[in-house]
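Narrative of activities, Objective 1.

The group set out to show that a structural description can be obtained from nothing but a protein's sequence at a throughput compatible with the screening campaign. Below is one input-output pair from the validation batch, recorded exactly as produced.
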Amino acid sequence: VSGGGRGRVKVTVYFESLCSDSMKFFKDQLYPTWRDLQDIMDLEFVPFGKATATPTGTGDYEMECQHGPNECYGNKVMTCAQNSLTIATQMELFHCMMTKPYPAFTGEQCSREVGVDWAPIDECSKSTVGSGLLYKNGVRTSSLKPRVYFIPTVTIDGHYNRNQLRTSLGDLKTQICEVYQGPPHQNCL
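Output recorded for this entry:
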């Protein structure tokens, strides 16, 4: 039985806000697959990627991101949004952000576009609360086995390897349909 229960497939996406491969994955694979298969997917986002987060001892964290401080900010905005939005709304917001030319600074614009209140997300993203949530995403990312070597990384029912990741990045929909254990799905035929 698949890890999501009720035959659903648990899909976890580890990504970064300014990673071109993450942006391409959202646009070409994740969003179209979600549109067709959201009723059989338990989707979860882990914005962090190849970053480091070190506790400062003051309740905050020193963050370093692969594509610089702006990426850390974008990751934090998405992490804060995760904390308060349903998965369907997260998908709409993150898809909006990740398909813009510079996703890290599109949180406010995309919040307006998808009808989400920006103020609490903005407040969280400027706070130690947001840093703490992002740090937790870092802990999750660093505990992946095998270790993250490519962003985005996609786990299916909690697992991934190089071959599976290559398939996820190229044909996520077929992969989810193959793993799915529930009754026949109209978009998996």
